[in-house]
Amino acid sequence: MRCPFCQFPDNRVLESRSAESGQSVRRRRECLRCNRRFTTYERIEFVPIVVVKRNGERESFERSKLLNGIVRACEKTGISHSRLDSLVDEIEAELQQQGVREVLSQEIGELALKHLQALNEVAYIRFASVYKQFKGARDFVDILNHLQEMAASYTEAATTSEVSDEEASDITPDSLDEREAIASSRNH
Ligand SMILES: [Zn+2]
Question: Which of 7, 11, 70, 129 is 20 to 30 Å from the Cα of 81, by its Cα?
Answer without folding.
Answer: 129
